[in-house]
Amino acid sequence: MRVKDVMGRVAIAVQRDATFAELVATMRRFKVDAVAVVNADGRPVGTVSEDDLLPGGTGLPSGDTDLSPGEADLPRGGEGFPRGEEAPAGGGRHPDRRRIMEMTAEELMASPAPTVVGETSIREAALLMHVNGVRQLPVIDAVSGRIAGTVHQADLLRIFARRAPEVLADVAAAVARLRLDPRTLTISVDAGVVRIQGRLARRSQIARLAEAAQQADGVVDLRIDVTYDHDDLADDLTGEPADRPAEAAGTGRATLARTAPED
């Protein structure tokens, strides 16, 4: 399963010149803890999080709140100064609240922005969120680079949390619709990873099998390890049947239909 299967089509983003107040308002409106910053062409150039607005403080709740920017408990000592600036000697109880609140998104943002495309796997997106410490990622168009939507941590959790028997039933149903002989295939599910083993009549059926299986909700990764009786995709059409392993590893791409060398 890929990001395009679970993403939201609303692009949660602000322009580079967005004000502190606009950043806070956007986070409240969409109930998120970070927003993407885009250039004039709509391409992400950075991200502003709650920590960028109020580093070391309480942060802004991602849900509804009556907290105003002026009421936020900004950090003490030398923390929380604008990027590239140091705290004055001897520190002080707070950084200049007014200056921080007058900064733009471009001055506050972390850059570059972590992004994904529609074809990014759910597992890759989850790892990217973990590494960057964020709960949502901007989804960009693979060709133009413009922001096309947002994928949230909750979207991914719904996929990871689906029970194995439910995933197994959906994959089995998808395979049955292909009119393949179920007696020749074994399907197992473990933590969202679907493994299909067995034998097919033709090599070309591998691609159809992979496409059908990965459409089931909850399929995080896919492994296909089968043999086939006839290589109908072979360039050398000798008419002689082939009988060798074909492996496909869960990227969901067309390469799933190609024979990969065994380890």
From TrEMBL:
Stretches assigned to the CBS domain: 7-67, 109-166
Organism listed in the record: Streptosporangium sandarakinum
Keyword Heme in record: no
Region Disordered: start-end pairs: 46-96, 234-263
Keywords assigned: CBS domain
SMART domains: CBS
Coiled-coil annotated residue ranges, if any: none
Regions of compositional bias (Low complexity) in chain numbering: 247-263
Segments traversing the membrane: none
Pfam families: CBS
Signal sequence interval, chain numbering: none
Protein name in UniProt: CBS domain-containing protein
